[in-house]
Amino acid sequence: MLTALGGCEPQLEVHINAALNVGLSATEITEALLHAAVYCGMPRALNATFVARKVFDERGLLPVDNATP
């Protein structure tokens, strides 16, 4: 929802950190943002992805491994 609204990047950063804290992987978050692009458009999805990348970088989770097990 924050991705679709746009302009909520600070709140999105908090939610991405919280998602990682409760066990979601960086790959799962990235996939959710990719899925959101279809519904809210690429510009907003890209903004959300940049926020996620910042959070992943701060946590040492880059590069994100998108390989399927």
List the helices and strands and how they pair.
Elements: H1 2-5, H2 9-21, H3 26-40, H4 42-58
Helix pairs in contact: 2-4, 3-4
Structural features, described:
With 69 residues, the protein is an all-alpha fold. The chain has one domain (9-58). 71% of the residues lie in helices and 0% in strands. The chain is built from 4 helices and no strands. It has helices at 2-5, 9-21, 26-40, 42-58. Helix 2 packs across helix 4 and helix 3 packs antiparallel against helix 4 (42-58). The protein is globular. The model has no long low-confidence stretch (mean pLDDT 93).
- Biggest sheet character: none
Rg value:
11 Å
Low-confidence stretches: none
State the order of secondary-structure elements, H for helix, E for strand: HHHH
Number of domains as seen in the coordinates: 1
- Structural class by helix and strand composition: mainly alpha
Query: How would you state the average pLDDT, rounded?
Result: 93
Number of strand segments: 0
Number of helices: 4
Shape: globular
* Beta content: under 5%
| N-to-C span | 29 Å
Helix proportion? over 70%
